Amino acid sequence: MQGLTPEALAQVAAYFQALSEPTRLQILNLLRGGEHNVGEMATACGYTSANISRHLALLMKHGLVARESRGNAVYYRIADESVYALCDLVCGSIARQWDKSAQDRKAFARVKPPSPVGRSKRS
């Protein structure tokens, strides 16, 4: 991103913002298996067709998905496969962070609590 103008950086931020919504990631993940129409995606994702259509419009705006009309149906597919490489990088990074956190928690779990201080046994 070095050397990009503020306008270009705003476009990059908007692209990442399009990927920052779980429903849109769910749509992209579904489309990874092949093209679908809005009704199929709504059923698979558990949302209304209107909601899915709104998310698809934003994904199309950023060039992530493409649409094709066939008779009365419109089918969507991935337009830019590189989005999966980006998502895989992010998922790998998150997995490494979780692994590190788990290791850190294990290190603390091995530490024995100190014995009580200042308690004497009285008979």
UniProtKB/TrEMBL annotation:
InterPro entries named among the record's database cross-references: ArsR-like_HTH, HTH_ArsR_DNA-bd_dom, Metal_resp_trans_reg, WH-like_DNA-bd_sf, WH_DNA-bd_sf
SUPFAM superfamilies hit by this protein: Winged helix' DNA-binding domain (SSF46785)
The keyword Transcription regulation appears for this protein: yes
Keywords assigned: DNA-binding, Transcription, Transcription regulation
Residue ranges of the region described as Disordered: 101-123
Gene3D superfamilies the record matches: Winged helix-like DNA-binding domain superfamily/Winged helix DNA-binding domain
The keyword Transcription is annotated on this UniProt entry: yes
Ranges for domain HTH arsR-type: 4-98
PROSITE patterns xref list: HTH_ARSR_2
Protein name: Metalloregulator ArsR/SmtB family transcription factor
Source organism of this protein record: Piscinibacter gummiphilus
